[in-house]
Amino acid sequence: MSSKRPLKVLIVGASISGLTLAHCLDRINVDYEVFDGHPIAPPVGASICIFPNGCAVLDQLGLYESLAAISRKVELVSLRLAGGRAVRALEDTKALEQRTGYSGIPLSRQALIQLLYDHIPDKAKIHAGTEKKVVRVEHREDGVQLHTADGGIAYGDVVIGCDGIHSTIRSEMWRIANAAQEGALAEDRSAFASEYSCLFGISGPVRGLGPGDSHLVTGRPGYLVFTGAKGEVFFFLYQKMDRKYIWPDVARFSRQDGEALALRHLNDSLTDKVTFGDIWKERETFTLLPMDEGVVKNWHWGRIAVLGDAAHKVAVNLGQGGNSAIEDAAALANAFDAALKVPNTKPHDFRV
Q1: Contact 50, 145 (CB under 8 A)
Q2: In whole angstroms, how far apart are CA 261 and each of 200, 234, 325?
Q3: Are 138 and 2 in contact (CB under 8 A)?
């Protein structure tokens, strides 16, 4: 491989967007390092469905076959009313694949991140664990510095925050921008709000739910349920909260809150054969969180930018949070590639 191009990217967050960006930068021969304050692919109990827009990017990165091998395409999409009565069942999902080249592929978020990590060519560039948590960013005229919890310092030309809805890099971007110009980016501090909560998790196989099944149940609460290759069940229960929370005011829930919510809805019918209680009985992991929604107006300032949930957060029933994060990474890498093709480009020229 030829020598690296004149750019060093510091990525904060070994997330879907962060690791996808790492793969994209490898493809365009740009140097990078990734920092995350947690272990790689923690078992948080969340799930994701990779739709054609996400599949197309992963395919270009040479990851689609590995993705398809650990999951199973969605084969049945059933729309249901409260009580489980089917309104419409789309049993032939081949039309989506015929039109786009890809189908929906459900799997756990942990499995997707592990896949992305496993295929990173040089894992020495990935720094994960509590000691690698980024605690401060220094923004300089000629580059950026990241300070980690263990006292380490990393140097680069730009820093990209792929660290989720509670983004440290977004907060640092706000701090640095405000220091340069009082009130800068202030409108983004209340960009996120939540009106709904979501109880999500993973259960073992449930009688009446086959691999490749997907059920969307409207009502109060609403449900989204789909199954993976081994029959594992990914479930979401979402309902409106008592009021709207606008950042920095955030609803907080305990594990007991999640259990109490589930117990109130054990008898809810999701299909003519399956209740929520059937799924809950087989639960392996679960979490109750507010469903933050919103888009910050400013995704970048100087040498700092944010991607994925750090920039835009959508409700889980859209199924586009992770897919949009994948597209973000590809779009940014394309922008870097185009900029580096400009004659006489130097690292200190870069702003995001």
Answers
A1: no
A2: 11, 17, 30
A3: no
Helix (H) or strand (E) holding 10: strand 8-12
Gap between the Cα atoms of 152 and 141, Å rounded: 21
Task: Report angle CA 232, 233, 236 to the nearest 5 degrees.
Answer: 155
Residues 214 and 173 in one domain: no
Burial class (CB in 10 A: 0-12, 13-18, 19+), 222: middle
- Cβ–Cβ under 8 Å, residues 90 and 104: no
- Condensed to tens digits (0 to 9), the pLDDT of residues 205-239 reads 999 998 888 999 999 999 999 999 889 999 999 99
As a whole number of angstroms, the distance between CA 223 and CA 296 comes to: 28
Tokens encoding 6? 């004149």
Q: Is 313:293 a contact under the CB 8 Å cutoff?
A: yes
CA separation for the pair 22, 327 (Å, rounded): 13
Q: Is residue 52 in a domain?
A: no
Q: What is the mean pLDDT of the chain?
A: 93
Q: What is the pLDDT of residue 126?
A: 98
Q: Strands 86-90 and 105-108: what pairing?
A: unpaired
CATH of the domain at 139: 3.50.50.60
SS3 70: coil
Alpha-carbon span 13 to 36, nearest angstrom: 5
User: Which residues have C-beta within 8 Å of that of residue 89, sequence separation ≥ 6?
Assistant: 76, 77, 78, 79
Residues 319 and 179 in one domain: yes
Residue 212 and residue 178 share a domain: no
Handedness of CA 63, 69, 70, 72 (dihedral sign): positive
Distance from the Cα of residue 27 to its chain's centroid: 21
Determine the Cα–Cα distance for residues 328 and 309; give it in Å rounded to an integer.
Answer: 10
Residue 87: strand, helix, or coil: strand
- In the three-class reduction of DSSP (H, G, I as helix; E, B as strand; rest coil), residue 138 is classed as strand
Query: pTM surpassing 0.85?
Result: yes
Q: How far is residue 199's CA from residue 110's CA, in Å, rounded to a whole number?
A: 17
